[in-house]
Specification:
two-stranded antiparallel sheet, about 260 residues, alpha+beta, 4-stranded mixed sheet, 10 helices
Protein backbone atom coordinates (compact mmCIF):
# COMPACT_ATOMS: atom_id res chain seq x y z
CA UNK A 1 0.00 0.00 0.00
CA UNK A 2 1.56 3.38 -1.00
CA UNK A 3 2.36 5.86 1.77
CA UNK A 4 -0.22 8.51 2.47
CA UNK A 5 0.39 11.81 0.71
CA UNK A 6 1.57 14.50 3.08
CA UNK A 7 -0.97 17.22 3.76
CA UNK A 8 0.16 20.71 2.86
CA UNK A 9 0.92 22.94 5.83
CA UNK A 10 -1.60 25.66 6.56
CA UNK A 11 -0.98 29.10 8.03
CA UNK A 12 -3.26 31.32 10.09
CA UNK A 13 -4.02 34.25 7.72
CA UNK A 14 -4.56 36.76 10.51
CA UNK A 15 -1.26 35.86 12.16
CA UNK A 16 0.58 36.06 8.84
CA UNK A 17 -0.80 39.52 8.09
CA UNK A 18 0.19 40.69 11.55
CA UNK A 19 3.65 39.14 11.21
CA UNK A 20 4.31 40.75 7.83
CA UNK A 21 3.37 44.19 9.10
CA UNK A 22 5.36 43.70 12.31
CA UNK A 23 8.55 42.67 10.52
CA UNK A 24 8.22 45.40 7.92
CA UNK A 25 7.73 47.89 10.74
CA UNK A 26 10.90 46.66 12.42
CA UNK A 27 12.84 47.26 9.21
CA UNK A 28 11.25 50.65 8.54
CA UNK A 29 12.16 51.91 12.00
CA UNK A 30 15.75 50.70 11.64
CA UNK A 31 16.14 52.26 8.20
CA UNK A 32 15.08 55.57 9.71
CA UNK A 33 18.14 55.46 11.99
CA UNK A 34 20.73 54.87 9.23
CA UNK A 35 23.40 57.50 8.71
CA UNK A 36 24.49 58.34 5.14
CA UNK A 37 27.70 56.42 5.79
CA UNK A 38 25.77 53.33 6.89
CA UNK A 39 23.42 53.56 3.91
CA UNK A 40 26.44 53.49 1.60
CA UNK A 41 27.94 50.34 3.16
CA UNK A 42 28.27 47.22 0.99
CA UNK A 43 26.10 44.15 1.58
CA UNK A 44 26.64 40.46 0.96
CA UNK A 45 24.36 40.74 -2.09
CA UNK A 46 26.85 41.44 -4.82
CA UNK A 47 27.21 45.15 -5.53
CA UNK A 48 24.10 46.20 -3.61
CA UNK A 49 24.56 48.87 -0.97
CA UNK A 50 22.52 49.06 2.21
CA UNK A 51 20.44 51.76 0.48
CA UNK A 52 19.68 49.42 -2.44
CA UNK A 53 18.78 46.64 -0.03
CA UNK A 54 16.44 48.86 1.99
CA UNK A 55 14.69 49.95 -1.20
CA UNK A 56 14.34 46.30 -2.21
CA UNK A 57 12.71 45.44 1.09
CA UNK A 58 9.99 47.94 0.23
CA UNK A 59 9.31 45.82 -2.85
CA UNK A 60 8.30 42.90 -0.60
CA UNK A 61 5.07 44.75 0.16
CA UNK A 62 5.02 46.84 -2.99
CA UNK A 63 4.70 43.63 -5.02
CA UNK A 64 1.45 42.83 -3.24
CA UNK A 65 0.04 46.27 -4.07
CA UNK A 66 1.11 45.91 -7.71
CA UNK A 67 -0.43 42.45 -8.05
CA UNK A 68 -3.68 43.61 -6.48
CA UNK A 69 -3.82 46.36 -9.10
CA UNK A 70 -3.74 43.75 -11.88
CA UNK A 71 -6.78 41.77 -13.08
CA UNK A 72 -7.60 38.75 -10.95
CA UNK A 73 -6.77 35.41 -12.62
CA UNK A 74 -9.81 33.24 -13.39
CA UNK A 75 -8.60 30.31 -11.30
CA UNK A 76 -5.76 29.21 -9.05
CA UNK A 77 -2.89 27.68 -11.04
CA UNK A 78 -0.13 27.47 -8.44
CA UNK A 79 0.48 26.37 -4.88
CA UNK A 80 2.55 27.96 -2.16
CA UNK A 81 5.50 25.59 -2.59
CA UNK A 82 5.82 26.62 -6.26
CA UNK A 83 7.05 30.06 -5.18
CA UNK A 84 10.60 29.20 -4.01
CA UNK A 85 11.37 27.56 -7.36
CA UNK A 86 9.92 30.43 -9.41
CA UNK A 87 11.60 33.49 -7.92
CA UNK A 88 15.05 32.96 -9.45
CA UNK A 89 13.84 34.05 -12.88
CA UNK A 90 12.90 37.46 -11.49
CA UNK A 91 16.34 38.25 -10.02
CA UNK A 92 17.77 40.50 -12.80
CA UNK A 93 14.64 42.68 -12.94
CA UNK A 94 14.49 42.85 -9.15
CA UNK A 95 18.06 44.14 -8.84
CA UNK A 96 17.56 46.88 -11.39
CA UNK A 97 14.27 47.99 -9.89
CA UNK A 98 15.77 48.15 -6.39
CA UNK A 99 18.55 50.48 -7.52
CA UNK A 100 16.06 52.67 -9.37
CA UNK A 101 13.87 52.93 -6.27
CA UNK A 102 16.88 53.82 -4.13
CA UNK A 103 17.82 56.63 -6.52
CA UNK A 104 14.28 58.00 -6.75
CA UNK A 105 13.65 57.95 -3.00
CA UNK A 106 16.42 59.72 -1.08
CA UNK A 107 14.33 59.52 2.11
CA UNK A 108 14.05 55.75 2.34
CA UNK A 109 12.23 55.77 5.67
CA UNK A 110 9.49 57.97 4.18
CA UNK A 111 9.35 55.71 1.13
CA UNK A 112 8.91 52.61 3.29
CA UNK A 113 6.22 54.34 5.35
CA UNK A 114 4.33 55.15 2.13
CA UNK A 115 4.64 51.55 0.94
CA UNK A 116 3.32 50.37 4.30
CA UNK A 117 0.30 52.70 4.11
CA UNK A 118 -0.64 51.58 0.62
CA UNK A 119 -0.15 47.91 1.52
CA UNK A 120 -2.30 48.18 4.67
CA UNK A 121 -5.07 49.93 2.76
CA UNK A 122 -5.13 47.30 0.02
CA UNK A 123 -5.18 44.45 2.54
CA UNK A 124 -8.27 45.97 4.14
CA UNK A 125 -9.99 46.01 0.75
CA UNK A 126 -9.30 42.43 -0.33
CA UNK A 127 -10.16 39.00 1.08
CA UNK A 128 -7.46 36.40 1.50
CA UNK A 129 -9.01 34.31 -1.26
CA UNK A 130 -8.32 37.01 -3.86
CA UNK A 131 -6.05 35.51 -6.55
CA UNK A 132 -2.79 37.15 -7.64
CA UNK A 133 -0.92 36.55 -10.92
CA UNK A 134 2.49 35.75 -9.41
CA UNK A 135 5.59 34.28 -11.04
CA UNK A 136 4.60 30.99 -9.39
CA UNK A 137 1.17 31.01 -11.01
CA UNK A 138 -2.10 32.28 -9.64
CA UNK A 139 -1.87 32.17 -5.83
CA UNK A 140 -4.28 33.39 -3.20
CA UNK A 141 -3.44 36.58 -1.35
CA UNK A 142 -3.20 34.58 1.88
CA UNK A 143 -0.60 32.22 0.36
CA UNK A 144 1.40 35.01 -1.23
CA UNK A 145 1.62 36.82 2.10
CA UNK A 146 3.39 33.78 3.56
CA UNK A 147 6.13 34.29 0.97
CA UNK A 148 6.52 37.86 2.21
CA UNK A 149 7.74 36.54 5.57
CA UNK A 150 10.64 34.86 3.77
CA UNK A 151 11.55 38.04 1.90
CA UNK A 152 11.38 40.16 5.05
CA UNK A 153 13.24 37.80 7.39
CA UNK A 154 15.99 37.04 4.85
CA UNK A 155 16.61 40.69 4.10
CA UNK A 156 16.40 41.71 7.74
CA UNK A 157 19.27 39.31 8.27
CA UNK A 158 21.11 40.84 5.30
CA UNK A 159 20.74 44.32 6.80
CA UNK A 160 21.92 43.16 10.21
CA UNK A 161 24.97 41.54 8.61
CA UNK A 162 25.80 44.71 6.67
CA UNK A 163 25.42 47.28 9.45
CA UNK A 164 27.19 46.43 12.72
CA UNK A 165 24.99 47.11 15.72
CA UNK A 166 21.77 47.63 13.73
CA UNK A 167 20.21 44.56 15.37
CA UNK A 168 16.77 44.68 13.77
CA UNK A 169 14.55 42.29 15.74
CA UNK A 170 12.75 39.34 14.18
CA UNK A 171 9.03 39.00 14.70
CA UNK A 172 8.47 35.49 16.08
CA UNK A 173 5.56 34.65 13.76
CA UNK A 174 7.43 35.94 10.70
CA UNK A 175 10.52 33.90 11.60
CA UNK A 176 8.38 30.81 12.20
CA UNK A 177 6.55 31.08 8.87
CA UNK A 178 9.76 31.69 6.91
CA UNK A 179 11.43 28.71 8.59
CA UNK A 180 8.49 26.41 7.89
CA UNK A 181 8.06 27.39 4.26
CA UNK A 182 11.73 26.79 3.52
CA UNK A 183 11.71 23.49 5.45
CA UNK A 184 8.70 22.32 3.46
CA UNK A 185 10.48 23.38 0.28
CA UNK A 186 13.34 21.03 1.15
CA UNK A 187 10.91 18.18 1.83
CA UNK A 188 9.22 18.78 -1.53
CA UNK A 189 12.53 18.97 -3.39
CA UNK A 190 13.93 15.80 -1.81
CA UNK A 191 10.87 13.69 -0.91
CA UNK A 192 11.39 10.72 1.35
CA UNK A 193 11.48 9.67 4.95
CA UNK A 194 15.05 8.63 5.70
CA UNK A 195 16.27 11.95 7.11
CA UNK A 196 14.71 14.13 9.77
CA UNK A 197 15.50 17.84 9.67
CA UNK A 198 14.83 19.62 12.95
CA UNK A 199 14.70 23.40 13.25
CA UNK A 200 13.45 24.00 16.79
CA UNK A 201 11.16 25.42 17.86
CA UNK A 202 9.42 25.89 14.51
CA UNK A 203 9.74 22.94 12.15
CA UNK A 204 10.50 19.24 11.73
CA UNK A 205 10.36 17.65 8.28
CA UNK A 206 11.16 14.26 6.77
CA UNK A 207 13.06 14.15 3.49
CA UNK A 208 15.53 12.22 1.29
CA UNK A 209 14.80 8.84 -0.27
CA UNK A 210 15.81 5.75 1.66
CA UNK A 211 14.65 3.53 4.51
CA UNK A 212 11.83 5.13 6.47
CA UNK A 213 12.02 4.99 10.25
CA UNK A 214 8.80 4.40 12.17
CA UNK A 215 9.74 4.80 15.81
CA UNK A 216 12.55 5.91 18.08
CA UNK A 217 15.45 8.11 17.06
CA UNK A 218 15.77 8.30 13.25
CA UNK A 219 19.13 7.12 11.84
CA UNK A 220 19.72 10.36 9.93
CA UNK A 221 19.19 13.65 11.73
CA UNK A 222 20.01 17.24 10.87
CA UNK A 223 19.41 19.98 13.43
CA UNK A 224 20.04 23.70 13.38
CA UNK A 225 18.54 26.99 14.54
CA UNK A 226 16.03 29.02 12.47
CA UNK A 227 18.39 31.76 11.27
CA UNK A 228 21.13 29.31 10.29
CA UNK A 229 18.52 27.28 8.40
CA UNK A 230 17.31 30.36 6.54
CA UNK A 231 20.90 31.29 5.67
CA UNK A 232 21.56 27.76 4.40
CA UNK A 233 18.34 27.69 2.39
CA UNK A 234 19.10 31.04 0.74
CA UNK A 235 22.81 30.57 0.13
CA UNK A 236 23.99 33.07 2.73
CA UNK A 237 26.12 30.35 4.31
CA UNK A 238 27.39 27.10 2.83
CA UNK A 239 26.67 23.67 4.25
CA UNK A 240 30.39 23.08 4.83
CA UNK A 241 30.88 26.36 6.67
CA UNK A 242 27.83 25.76 8.85
CA UNK A 243 29.20 22.34 9.82
CA UNK A 244 32.71 23.68 10.43
CA UNK A 245 31.34 26.44 12.65
CA UNK A 246 29.10 23.98 14.55
CA UNK A 247 26.00 25.89 13.46
CA UNK A 248 24.41 22.66 12.26
CA UNK A 249 24.69 19.06 13.46
CA UNK A 250 24.30 16.15 11.05
CA UNK A 251 24.41 12.45 11.90
CA UNK A 252 23.87 9.48 9.60
CA UNK A 253 24.92 8.58 6.06
CA UNK A 254 21.95 10.42 4.53
CA UNK A 255 22.32 13.56 6.64
CA UNK A 256 24.49 15.49 4.16
CA UNK A 257 22.21 18.17 2.68
CA UNK A 258 25.02 20.00 0.90
CA UNK A 259 23.89 18.83 -2.52
CA UNK A 260 20.33 20.06 -1.95
CA UNK A 261 21.17 23.58 -0.78
CA UNK A 262 20.59 26.40 -1.35
CA UNK A 263 16.87 26.21 -2.06
CA UNK A 264 16.59 29.83 -3.22
CA UNK A 265 19.14 31.53 -5.45
Amino acid sequence: MPPAKKRARTYDPAKIRTAVLAQFGNVREAVGTLTPEQAALPTRLGDWTVRDLAAHIGMALGAVVRLLDEPEPPKQSGVLLDWPHAIGADAPDIAGHARDLAERNPDLAAHLADVERRFTARLAENPGTRLLATSAGALSLDDYLVTRTVELVVHTDDLNAAVPGLDIPYDRQALAAATRLLADTLAARAPGGSTEVRIPPYAVVQCVEGPRHTRGTPPNVVETDPLTWIRLATGRVSWKDALDEAKVSASGERADLGGLLPLLT
